[in-house]
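Bug #77: duplicate submission created two jobs. Keeping one. Sequence:
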Amino acid sequence: MSLPSHISIGAKTARQRGYEYHYDLVKVGEIEMYMLSSANRKDDEKLVLQKESPFWVAYNIKESEDGVIDFGQPRFRTKENMVEKGWHSWEMYDVKSGQWAGDLQCSTEWS
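Kept job's structure:
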């Protein structure tokens, strides 16, 4: 399955309020990943979604002026194929405990 070039992900409340996240498919070297759309960033927030079998993981990133991406703290992950349209269950990373927990239900749409 080829990956859609644009997706949006959001919980029910976020979608109702228009706060879902919009991602664009990018290729960094040989790796395809989704980067949070620049139009959707809040306070210079930068997130990427990267496939790390068996998970899709959302990371905070820092991007240097020469385009090098420094992966920071993971934020969310799912074992589901989150590029498929529909609802998916995500876990959240708790920085204090260093554990994954929770069940955040978010839907994926193609845009």
